[in-house]
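Reopening this ticket.

The earlier resolution said the output was attached, but the attachment link was broken on my side. Pasting everything inline this time so it's all in one place.
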Amino acid sequence: GSQERVQMPHPEIFEALVPGTDLLINDGKIRLTVESCGHDYAETIVVNGGRLSDRKGVNVPSVLLPISAMTDKDHADLRVGLQLGVDWVALSFVQRPEDIQEIRGIVQGRAGVLAKIEKPAAVEALAAIIDECDAIMVARGDLGVEMPAERVPRIQKHIVRACRKAGKPVIVATQMLESMIEAPVPTRAEASDVATAIYDGADAVMLSAESASGQFPREAVAMMDCILSEVESDPHYRQGIDASQESGGGSLADVVCHSLRVTAQQLPISGIVTYTRSGATSLKAARERPTSRILSITPDIHTARRLALAWGVHSVGASIELTEVPEIVANACSVARQEGFAKPGEFVAVAAGTPFGTIGSTNFLHIAKA
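Inline output:
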């Protein structure tokens, strides 16, 4: 290319352009506005200029692109990942719930499907996308490019609250400790940013370049852990979590899991034990943000690994055949002692369902001594 002309090998973008459309290049560092366009060209005005090299991303924030969220390379990479047994698949640049349906058709339940929210269209279709996926990531890097930076904090809070209400894990990611790519300590603003995500009730916070290519990966992980521990030891954290708690669904399992939270508040419960096959009961329990830790017991090791993403859940795989309630409770107490959730004589709250092992059958809460 030159100062006057560059190549963009994406005809689908040209087809979607109209005069007045903004093009953001290289994470928004360069901004162009389309004056005129056709099926294979666009004449633009340079609003914010800069040096441009090859293989830089192009964002079209105001346009719903008529393309799949998955490229041919994505399809090939996904097949390899599924063969290797990945636990989660994250889909970038989701625009619509149909994008999630497409990848679900490929995954076929072999992994959890996570939607990265980084486009305005995805924010507008958030409720439908949450319904279709297993978890959400607030991908603030591209979201901050596609939308005004001042809107990102409000959108982040909205997404976290919507996911908590739906009982879907939510990750807050990108630029959390950005300065630690090159420095051994974060800025105070970055520490506050991480803390805010935890105070809001996010299930997880994620490092990117800080640990992937930064100079201080161990220090970045340790600092993230220190911030999390500090926030969760703050009495105001629990007050804020309780105040922001919204009612979940109206199913029997929802009521049982809500009762778990109330029980943990009013009794000295050392641990909550949930039996689950699909992971749904443990996620419903995590949505309630109880004061006691959650021990999830499942016969499916894949479910156990996926539940590592959920707030407060420690999941173990156990192939067991139980039929009677006393057996279910006794096994829960035994596993709670083995995993360090309760000492002999301490209270344990157990949520399970009969007939045992049937998906969606959670229907009782039992309090026992370990």
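Reporter confirms the inline version is readable. Residues 4 and 141 are 28 Å apart (CA to CA). The mean pLDDT is 92.
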